[in-house]
Amino acid sequence: MRDLKDHRLLEQKHWFSLFNPRQRQEALMLFDVFIHCKDWDTFVSNAAYFRQRMNEGEFVYALYVAVIHSPLAEHVVLPPLYEVTPHLFTNSEVIEAAYRAKQTQTPGKFQSSFTGTKKNPEQRVAYFGEDIGMNTHHVTWHMEFPFWWQDSYSHHLDRKGENFFWVHHQLTVRFDAERLSNYLDPVGELHWDKPIVQGFAPHTTYKYGGQFPSRPDNVDFEDVDGVARIRDLLIVESRIRDAIAHGYIVDRAGNRIDIMNERGINVLGDIIESSMYSPNVQYYGALHNTAHIVLGRQADPHGKYALPPGVLEHFETATRDPSFFRLHKYMDNIFKEHKDSLPPYTVEDLKFNEVSVDKVSIDGQLETFFEDFEYSLINAVDDTQEIADVAISTYVPRLNHKDFSFNIDISNNGGEALATIRIFAWPHRDNNGIEYTFDEGRWNAIELDKFWVKRKYFTSVPGTNHIVRKSSESAVTVPDVPSFETLFEKTKEALGGADSGLTEFESATGIPNRFLLPKGNEQGLEFDLVVAVTDGAADAALDGLHENTEFNHYGAHGKYPDNRPHGYPLDRKVPDERVFEDLPNFGHIQVKVFNHGEHIHH
Ligand SMILES: [Cu+2]
């Protein structure tokens, strides 16, 4: 309130970036107000009050993070960010058309197309980096696990650093799989002393503050005034890699933290991002966050042209720039260095009593296609009392897949047991048609599902248990966030006494369910599909997981349900693949993912 009265706060109708320290501080002051509200009325009243007075971007950010984390708002379903701040999700051409439609009072439905032209091979996979569901997943994840989070706000975020590694690792391997069906090589890693091969022209505009900056091809990195020197980043990288080679991290007080164990990845994630959980920011820096700003500013590193922040400086827009994936490949390889330094799992570690996977198959064809998706742009245009609203929307192609099920036959000749079932897939060949080894493949494994079974399927009756798991049940995905319009309707119905039917939308943190499968091709893109059935009693960090067929896999609430490291049992190097091939509780088949060029038009 003091800052507000002294007019020290960022004005309204100005861009907001979380990576701007003062703007972040202001957004967090507001978050601090929300998270400390003791009842619902106080929360809502504060929100209404500051909505009128604070910068809009700061307000939206603070409100979203508070709703995600406050126990008062546990069951609140937030509207999709692409309808709240459409400027960060579609391109300037569509936004201009939307303004014209409003001005001329003519309802309009405009097609959003992906950035660039066919002359740019990277455009073939723009449907991934520019997918509004993917962007929502990414920004929501960073709201569930904010790097600035302190436990004093309300609670501890379990395995935050490891989750940071895993969510970005999955984006990395998924993007590489998408590239294969588009005849592109895997992403090469970005490096500070090499040119940034790919340029990027975002065709995105701020609602207030001009165009997002562009970058031509093959730019050499330059120091960014007031942010970082390139050599500082190299030094920080080398300290982190030293820690990995030594097998320990040195905290602020000079104590060693052992990382040669399954929790080491969590500490490494905290120091690489870095988050407030980092044991020594002074020494290990903030490689990821600094890299985002440095990369985002390469169009104007010395602030000569007063350009606003780049796409890399917003979690909503970061994945639009292909260099995002190069940057994350670079960091993913640092994490790999650590994972590869841990002792491989043995048969003894992995086997599960008398349990064996007899057969794995797929019901239905694995087939992807494109469809058009429409969403409202009403919030893209200025809202004035004098001019009436008209219906303005955009439609954009997006990847989807046909429904299918996993069929898994398991025999259990031991007693009744709780079992964890983990399903992964990785591309069988690289872009040159060369088969991946098991060890190469497992690092590229896409996590498709993870769930627990007992009784119903997994009885003590000797013989076979038949498990059918539908693609729609996957614990790693979430459905589309309901639109503003749907939320208004459902709220009205609920006020009339009906069930709102919105429970499944309480979290938007997972991968969009449409993205469960990577795009296939005409001949069928070959994948290795594996199913690992492991000891649920040893794996489960919570009770009753088998009764809860779905838990939010990426969610930050409470304790993470799985005791095992993310990616288990494929997270460590496999020098001898016979360990897996001979493991009875491990199933391995080959499948093909098709795409016959089908496009369901709007
Ligand atoms: Cu991220």
UniProtKB/TrEMBL annotation:
InterPro entries on file: Di-copper_centre_dom_sf, Hemocyanin/hexamerin, Hemocyanin/hexamerin_mid_dom, Hemocyanin_C, Hemocyanin_C_sf, Hemocyanin_N, Hemocyanin_N_sf, Ig_E-set
GO MF assignments: oxidoreductase activity
Coiled coil: none
Gene3D superfamilies to which the protein is assigned, alphabetical: Di-copper center containing domain from catechol oxidase, Hemocyanin, C-terminal domain, Hemocyanin, N-terminal domain
Pfam short name (any one): Hemocyanin_M
Family according to the record: Belongs to the tyrosinase family. Hemocyanin subfamily.
PANTHER family registered for this protein in UniProt: FAT-BODY PROTEIN 1-RELATED (PTHR11511:SF5), LARVAL STORAGE PROTEIN/PHENOLOXIDASE (PTHR11511)
Protein name (Swiss-Prot/TrEMBL): Hemocyanin subunit L2
Native species: Penaeus vannamei (Whiteleg shrimp)
